[in-house]
Amino acid sequence: MASSSSSGLTFKLHPLVMVNISDHYTRVKSQMNPPGGDSAAVKAPAPPPRVYGCVIGVQRGRTVEIFNSFELLYDSATDSLDRAFLLKKQELYKKVFPNFYVLGWYSTGSDAEESDMHIHKALMDINESPVYVLLNPAINHAQKDLPVTIYESEMHVIDGIPQLIFVNSSYTIETVEAERISVDHVAHLKPSDGGSAATQLAAHLTSIHSAIKMLNSRIRVLHHYLVAMQKGEIPYENSLLRQVSSLLRRLPAIESEKFQDDFLMEYSDTLLITYLAMFTNCSSTMNELVEKFNTAYDRHSRRGGRTAFI
Amino acid sequence: MDPYPSSSQIAQKTWELENDIVSVDTPATSSSADAASDAIFYYDDVAQAKFQQEKPWANDPHYFRRVKISALALLKMVVHARSGGTIEVMGLMQGKTDGDAIIVMDAFALPVEGTETRVNAQADAYEYMVDYSQTNKQAGRLENVVGWYHSHPGYGCWLSGIDVSTQMLNQQFQEPFLAVVIDPTRTVSAGKVEIGAFRTYPEGYKPPDDPVSEYQTIPLNKIEDFGVHCKQYYSLDITYFKSSLDSHLLDLLWNKYWVNTLSSSPLLGNGDYVAGQISDLAEKLEQAENQLAHSRFGSLIAPPQRKKEEESQLAKITRDSAKITVEQVHGLMSQVIKDILFNSVRQSSRSRAEPSEPEPEPMVES
């Protein structure tokens, strides 16, 4: 059912959507299996439920950006989607996020199923080409990839009958600065208060360091691969080589007079601010010193002499 | 991919230990651990109804001390606050109570334009609130509204006079209720989430001890409002939690996220905020200078307390300027690192052929 998509659309997913879906799933799961007080009585846990919902966002040209999501009511016994609910929810979200519209729907599970096509078709009257976001809630610590897949529907002729099937699409994670910071915050549970300047510095540098570490490991993989290719262990793959060579040619990233100027200007701006802060610090310390001096000597110097300060 | 040595992990553990960071989620090694950390998601309406009846908070104004915010709620609130730009936005939080803690499970935005001059902007959104809560209950979110949040873009997390009166009203009729304030501008500038949770004291109540609140810099035009009301509410400790699935997802997310961390550029996005902060500091400095000039002649007669106050005014300014500088320097450090990484590779060095991920423009905020 899943081959790669040929529609040429690029998908961008915001982390909020994933956390939303995960939260929906965890809620429904825990309501179904209330935490038992004593571990000896093990209730056979009900099979994890499938949850359904709608994803909303913006489509600009060829880029589909999924920003947010909300839940849907779907009765799998009768295969019916609660339309009234969907419309109500859409209306509510339109008020707060007037730019977003329904882009598709989501569900949890390990693979797309035939029954999913029903919901997909049902949503087609809202959006002619909905996307289907599938989250796999099974926690598998071995896997390195996000358990989220995005499917599109395409009309394929199978056995002479034109049918809609799901095809896999690739996506990227898109974020804004604020989102990134809060995700970072929750992911690593950093202390929320200032701490000393040293801890702040450490925290900031640690995050950059880990990012660079990732970059480095990716580069090493590529390097290893290329060396193996050079030695002849792996057959040459020209398309990959072309990509690597074009990457290399992009370095150095920017090298123009204007950039240097602007960069140095920003640098000196920051240094100026540091200088200013230092000045303020110094004058404050000076001020304190003078105050202390005055306190120590003024009271005794009415006659013009300085008494020995003990 | 070579596994990296765990020395960094050891360093992280030491740092966590030194900073008393309590990890709220247990490592999901067994399904029982999963169940334990996910247990917080279970809504027991019988227990909640009982709690509502008992009203233990009626006797003790300081009853609630802690707040636990879920990852989802935090994300939604921060994103909503940031999307407002320089306009204050507001929304409601849903959750439940647990002993002396209020647990915030989810948050949603309200379609009202919040300005600091409107007493009860919530009134406009009652219909929205009711609709939303109804649809939520249908969809399986059973919690009740347990608080409200709004943003103070650029001027810190505290309750203004209007906020205090709104919250006092809320605490009379909609208990248990919590007020949360988020500053999205400072969040982006500082690289960590600026958030505060508050509850007001009832009218006329004097707090037994002077609450030690964390210092934050307030712009001059708001400082009066802050000072008048700061004794009327207290802040609660905030901790965060996430489900096992959330942790798993977030861990995996890092594999894609690191690009954004590297390419983020806090200096660019917050230029005018920083300029505003500096000019605000300049004004405060002038004020402090005037006060100091007076005190020099009055130091012979003036009581020692006044001198201390002026000194601490200057000390406060120094602290503020240090904070701004630190943030700027951090931003600059990132820029310099990016420059070194991506700009100083020369084609001539063949021995260090370093292919690199395409870095579109290191200066552009992603």
From TrEMBL, chain A:
<dbReference type="InterPro" id="IPR033859">
    <property type="entry name" value="MPN_CSN6"/>
</dbReference>
<comment type="function">
    <text>Component of the COP9 signalosome complex (CSN), a complex involved in various cellular and developmental processes such as photomorphogenesis and auxin and jasmonate responses. The CSN complex is an essential regulator of the ubiquitin (Ubl) conjugation pathway by mediating the deneddylation of the cullin subunits of SCF-type E3 ligase complexes, leading to decrease the Ubl ligase activity of SCF. It is involved in repression of photomorphogenesis in darkness by regulating the activity of COP1-containing Ubl ligase complexes.</text>
</comment>
<dbReference type="GO" id="GO:0008180">
    <property type="term" value="C:COP9 signalosome"/>
</dbReference>
<dbReference type="InterPro" id="IPR037518">
    <property type="entry name" value="MPN"/>
</dbReference>
<keyword id="KW-0736">Signalosome</keyword>
<dbReference type="GO" id="GO:0005737">
    <property type="term" value="C:cytoplasm"/>
</dbReference>
<feature type="domain" description="MPN">
    <location>
        <begin position="11"/>
        <end position="157"/>
    </location>
</feature>
<keyword id="KW-0539">Nucleus</keyword>
<dbReference type="InterPro" id="IPR000555">
    <property type="entry name" value="JAMM/MPN+_dom"/>
</dbReference>
<dbReference type="Pfam" id="PF13012">
    <property type="entry name" value="MitMem_reg"/>
</dbReference>
<dbReference type="InterPro" id="IPR024969">
    <property type="entry name" value="EIF3F/CSN6-like_C"/>
</dbReference>
<dbReference type="GO" id="GO:0000338">
    <property type="term" value="P:protein deneddylation"/>
</dbReference>
<comment type="similarity">
    <text>Belongs to the peptidase M67A family. CSN6 subfamily.</text>
</comment>
<protein>
    <recommendedName>
        <fullName>COP9 signalosome complex subunit 6</fullName>
    </recommendedName>
</protein>
<dbReference type="GO" id="GO:0008237">
    <property type="term" value="F:metallopeptidase activity"/>
</dbReference>
<dbReference type="GO" id="GO:0010387">
    <property type="term" value="P:COP9 signalosome assembly"/>
</dbReference>
<dbReference type="Pfam" id="PF01398">
    <property type="entry name" value="JAB"/>
</dbReference>
<keyword id="KW-0963">Cytoplasm</keyword>
From TrEMBL, chain B:
<dbReference type="GO" id="GO:0010100">
    <property type="term" value="P:negative regulation of photomorphogenesis"/>
</dbReference>
<dbReference type="GO" id="GO:0046872">
    <property type="term" value="F:metal ion binding"/>
</dbReference>
<dbReference type="GO" id="GO:0008180">
    <property type="term" value="C:COP9 signalosome"/>
</dbReference>
<dbReference type="InterPro" id="IPR037518">
    <property type="entry name" value="MPN"/>
</dbReference>
<feature type="compositionally biased region" description="Acidic residues">
    <location>
        <begin position="356"/>
        <end position="366"/>
    </location>
</feature>
<dbReference type="Pfam" id="PF01398">
    <property type="entry name" value="JAB"/>
</dbReference>
<keyword id="KW-0378">Hydrolase</keyword>
<comment type="similarity">
    <text>Belongs to the peptidase M67A family. CSN5 subfamily.</text>
</comment>
<keyword id="KW-0645">Protease</keyword>
<protein>
    <recommendedName>
        <fullName>MPN domain-containing protein</fullName>
    </recommendedName>
</protein>
<feature type="domain" description="MPN">
    <location>
        <begin position="67"/>
        <end position="204"/>
    </location>
</feature>
<dbReference type="Pfam" id="PF18323">
    <property type="entry name" value="CSN5_C"/>
</dbReference>
<dbReference type="InterPro" id="IPR000555">
    <property type="entry name" value="JAMM/MPN+_dom"/>
</dbReference>
<dbReference type="InterPro" id="IPR050242">
    <property type="entry name" value="JAMM_MPN+_peptidase_M67A"/>
</dbReference>
<feature type="region of interest" description="Disordered">
    <location>
        <begin position="346"/>
        <end position="366"/>
    </location>
</feature>
<dbReference type="GO" id="GO:0010387">
    <property type="term" value="P:COP9 signalosome assembly"/>
</dbReference>
<keyword id="KW-0479">Metal-binding</keyword>
<dbReference type="InterPro" id="IPR040961">
    <property type="entry name" value="CSN5_C"/>
</dbReference>
<keyword id="KW-0736">Signalosome</keyword>
<dbReference type="GO" id="GO:0009585">
    <property type="term" value="P:red, far-red light phototransduction"/>
</dbReference>
<keyword id="KW-0607">Phytochrome signaling pathway</keyword>
<dbReference type="GO" id="GO:0008237">
    <property type="term" value="F:metallopeptidase activity"/>
</dbReference>
